[in-house]
Amino acid sequence: MTESASSAPAALRRAQDAALVLEDGTIYRGSAYGATGQALGEAVFATGMTGYQETLTDPSYAGQIVVQTSPHIGITGVTSEDDESARMWPSGYVVRTASRITSNWRAEEPLGAQLERDGVVGIAGVDTRAITRRIRDVGAMRAGVFSGEALTDDAAMLAVVRESPQMAGRSLAATVSTTEPYALPAEGESIGTLAVLDLGIKGSTLKYLQQQGFDLVVLPQDSTLEQVLAHEPVAAFYSNGPGDPAASGSQVELLQGLLRAELPFFGICFGNQLLGRALGFGTYKLPFGHRGINQPVLDVATGRVEITSQNHGFAVDAAIGEQLESPAGFGRVEVSHYSLNDRVVEGLRALDIPAFSVQYHPESAAGPNDAHHMFGQFRDLVIAKKGAQA
Ligand SMILES: NC(=O)CC[C@H](N)C(=O)O
């Protein structure tokens, strides 16, 4: 059954004027939504039932075509208050049913209007359950959304998709990072300056760090060790962000310098992968990744389970349940958290230097608040380090 079935009332009949083309040759036809044109990227599925606006404005989604498994998208429109960054980042957007109306007192405009303004090429009216199963079975694939003049014959569109870059090996930090440093003040009494490396940071993360008493200096992704240390930070933070951690050599080197300078460190998502690499572990590409807001994670130290927000396609390669030695010479390390769905590493803790990180998103946005306390743990680590130095 498609919405263009002849029995559908005229108002519900939609044009078949867009196509989603997967690298394996599968093609889904639907109607254009948001911007018109051609979008290329890795097709990934996101399972959150809420929070489409936070997903779309998360810079970690740059270079990807997001398939929403939730079948009805857009009913609450968009409001700038919920933006996680200055724009929507996925190259393409795939939904089953795009809401024809906007119904929320906070809405400033329909979702489609912002997709269009930010150049996100979307497609609606496709079977997102079938697409998700395809991605789950075949693995993450390159894909394209084509509409308007870009909608050509199948073979031509497939050739374009197959010539597009793979996510593995791709560096995207320069696309999303601030180009100039900027400062944000602590909320309440300051405990010092935190050097924040912007690899695609979200507004909520900045807010939670400010709430912990850090004066933030947010730095471009290509900052050098000298540039970071010139701000006399009491600690360093690496954000989430798009791309393959194996293609982030300069940020890994910077982090090794920061760890040698004994700055307390906290990293989220991409930041967790880069801590893993800085400590000397490898990273690898997951078959189809974790993207959703109800991902169960075990905190090994406490035995507690947290329901977390996640968005990652790569992971750290480190053994769970044993004390590890950092191959890069930073002492003992342990896997602090892992996924209860597939035992993928979800957190790292160094035991001989003040550094830890999580693969999931403690700032949630969208998602549950279970892991907000990680920001408090970072504050405690920084205060403990200061106390030890006094
Ligand atoms: N949200 C993130 O920071 C994602 C990290 C990395 N780009 C990945 O896909 O695994």
Automatic annotation (TrEMBL):
Q: What class of enzyme is it?
A: ligase
Can you tell me which residues form the catalytic site?
269 (nucleophile), 361, 363
Q: Enumerate the residues binding L-glutamine.
A: 60, 241, 243, 270, 273, 311, 313-314
Matching entries from Pfam families are given as:
CPSase_sm_chain (PF00988), GATase (PF00117)
> Can you state which reaction this protein catalyses?
L-glutamine + H2O = L-glutamate + NH4(+); hydrogencarbonate + L-glutamine + 2 ATP + H2O = carbamoyl phosphate + L-glutamate + 2 ADP + phosphate + 2 H(+)
| InterPro entries associated with the record | Anth_synth/Amidotransfase, CarbamoylP_synth_ssu, CarbamoylP_synth_ssu_N, CarbP_synth_ssu_N_sf, Class_I_gatase-like, CPSase_GATase1, GATASE
Write out the GO biological process terms.
'de novo' pyrimidine nucleobase biosynthetic process; 'de novo' UMP biosynthetic process; glutamine metabolic process; L-arginine biosynthetic process
Keywords attached to this entry: Amino-acid biosynthesis, Arginine biosynthesis, ATP-binding, Glutamine amidotransferase, Ligase, Nucleotide-binding, Pyrimidine biosynthesis
Q: Which GO terms describe its molecular function?
A: ATP binding; carbamoyl-phosphate synthase (glutamine-hydrolyzing) activity
Provide the residue span(s) of the region labelled CPSase. 1-194
Q: So what EC number does this one have?
A: 6.3.5.5
Which pathway? Answer: Pyrimidine metabolism; UMP biosynthesis via de novo pathway; (S)-dihydroorotate from bicarbonate: step 1/3; Amino-acid biosynthesis; L-arginine biosynthesis; carbamoyl phosphate from bicarbonate: step 1/1
The organism's place on the tree of life at top rank: Bacteria
Carbamoyl-phosphate synthase small subunit N-terminal domain boundaries: 16-146
Q: What is the annotated quaternary arrangement, including any partners? A: Composed of two chains; the small (or glutamine) chain promotes the hydrolysis of glutamine to ammonia, which is used by the large (or ammonia) chain to synthesize carbamoyl phosphate. Tetramer of heterodimers (alpha,beta)4.
Q: What does this protein do?
A: Small subunit of the glutamine-dependent carbamoyl phosphate synthetase (CPSase). CPSase catalyzes the formation of carbamoyl phosphate from the ammonia moiety of glutamine, carbonate, and phosphate donated by ATP, constituting the first step of 2 biosynthetic pathways, one leading to arginine and/or urea and the other to pyrimidine nucleotides. The small subunit (glutamine amidotransferase) binds and cleaves glutamine to supply the large subunit with the substrate ammonia.
Q: Which NCBIfam families match?
A: CPSaseIIsmall (TIGR01368), PRK12838.1 (NF009475)
The Swiss-Prot or TrEMBL record describes its family as follows: Belongs to the CarA family.
| Record protein name field | Carbamoyl phosphate synthase small chain
* Originating species: Agrococcus baldri
